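User: Please predict the structure of the protein below. I'd like the answer in structure-token form so I can feed it into my own downstream comparison script.

Assistant: Understood. Taking the following sequence of 282 residues as input:
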Amino acid sequence: MRSSIPSRLSLILAAAACLFSNARFSGAAAAQQSAAPASTAPSIALKPYTAPDQSASAGVPSGWTVTSGSQTVIQMTGPQGAEIVLGKTFIARNAAFQAGKRGTGGTDLSMPYSANLEQKMTMILQQGAALGGMPAPQITFTSATPIQLPPALGQCGRFVLNATSTKGPLMIMGVFCSLPLDSAGIFKNILIEAQAPASVAPQDAPIASAVFASYKIPASMLQKKVAPFTAPPMPAGGVGAAGMLPELKASDTFADCFDESVIRGYGPNQLPQECGGRLPNP
């Protein structure tokens, strides 16, 4: 790996928290808030937590409880119904979406790969509600801001949305990534999000920002997390079908690019050519 994994995850996610806490602003104001640097996030005391399998770590705020930590995913709950989920992965098959229909072959659901990020996020929330025996939530995106990265890494963006639930209106914010389609028509979707009842969500935004910024994944685990669900075929010396992950020269190359483009937020002038940047390949 070219670098360690800690990063400017704080920059990306603290910006999302700024959007969350200012979700009542106009679209222009929300866009301005999304550019706020991580250093503007208030200091929140956190207790270090590492998953038992050493796959990820994060800080836990006072009064919050970790409910699970495994395979790079950390979940915690706080007062007044707040929840944070770090690194949840949804495996999707490229097919028509049917709410409540479980995936096959190790997948969680089916949804069209061609759908945009907001549509995919909506389908994942609808799937969760259907599997839990709850009515489909009504979802309204307050903000959706793409994260610029090479097409070979898929699509990522920050979001803020309002959703209905059986317990009342919710506000949800975070970062959502849809990774490239693999050779079997399957793709991974990775979510880092915080949700809370709409009445208390703005007050919880600084806490969510601090937790997001503390989230870390060891390099070896990140490689596994972003690897295609289906092992790629033997290199054939070319690029696969439209939308598919190109043949990369080593198993860690995609993880490096994901780390530097998505987590660290490097731009084209800071990225090597293999990651869609302008620097010569190392």
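That's the full token string. Residues 1-41, 239-251 have pLDDT under 50 and may be disordered.
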